Amino acid sequence: MLPINASVHQPMTALVLTAGGARGAYQAGVMKRISELPVYANSAAPFSIITGASAGAINGAAIASQHGDFSASAKLLVKLWSNLQASDVYRTDTLSLLQNVGRLALDFSLGGLTGAGRVSALVDSSPLYGFLSQNLSLAGIRRSVREGGLYALAITTTGYHSGRAFTFIEGKPGHPLWNKSRRVALSAEISVQHILASAAIPIVFPPVELPCGKSTAYFGDGAMRLVTPLSPAIRLGAERLLAVGVRCQESADSLLRSEWSSAEDFSSDLKRPPLSQICGTLMNAIFLDHLDADLDHLKRMNSFVTEHEKLASLVASPLGDAVPDHEPMRIVTPLVISPSADIAIIAKTLEHRMPKSVRYLMEGLGTPDAQSADLTSFLLFDSAFTRELVQLGYRDAAQRIDEIEAFLRDPFLSGNVALSKEGFTTTATENGVC
Of 129, 68, 401, which is closest to residue 76 (Cα–Cα)? Predict the structure, then answer.
């Protein structure tokens, strides 16, 4: 990677879309409001790099497929999520579910005698392939790359055999690739199968087979092993990041206060969590916690880089112009958009919209408190719920639209002045998140 010369270099902006199952509808609302800025009327999306995992992979592919018309791609996202039904994502008929439950019962009861492995997931997600194939024109990704507006689209999955995060990249010839201890990047022509693999929620959806080098392997949800969701965009060369999360920070803080507080006024005895709440916490660990942790790391690393640059300006290096034995560090400026309302509570009010067969099984796992109904929020693929999230994303982006517009329009925005809504200093270094 070459040093950056600000006088001739145009910084690349990346869109980072995180995971979240049905919560991904929130990102559609954010994109819709940003696309309505007058500067983007009949214009291309302002993102040279787009990265995503799980639901973020679906949204990222939709934006990339119509990169030349940002307004059209945002409208496509809103249409997809606003009209979504569970039957578009997985088979909801009782027969299909009972067959799966029966095979699962055989595995648990007789697996030691007759062999197990009859069930690879709780539901049959085959309808999602048809839904995505019908609504996404992925040839548009190649056209956008060829015409120059899009530098790269990166979709991350998890390899079920190696446990590594595999990032499949369709981009300009010569784009960066990497092979780290837990992360691998490969060039690919992004297909519906790649998106399905990235969105294959573990246990709930079955693994997806993908070509990998000269062989094939099985992959699942990209959020499982991508503990640094900003990393792919930064390794691809982004110097500014617009990240759209799906977790309400205020709600997370409130749950922490209810679980641990030094003030007697806030102390309370919490009930034993049902299995549904435990599953929801597991989903949080996979989908929601990584961005928060990555931003925490950015804050620490930014302080380190700032001090390093001050020291370097005062002390001449004894090595002169020698090439360092590590990747050069650079400032990367992120801006994060996150929900202002607790999505779990919204899901709780609409859980009756789930298919009866699925709702019956989930009720068997116990009833969590409203703020901990995260499992439902990931799996509630229903238009009433997703429209609420689209509207929430639209409102949140509207509240910060001046900040967002300034961030996107000023390619040389100082990393020391912008602040994310969560209060993190929005500067970072490549080594800070990779």
Answer: 68
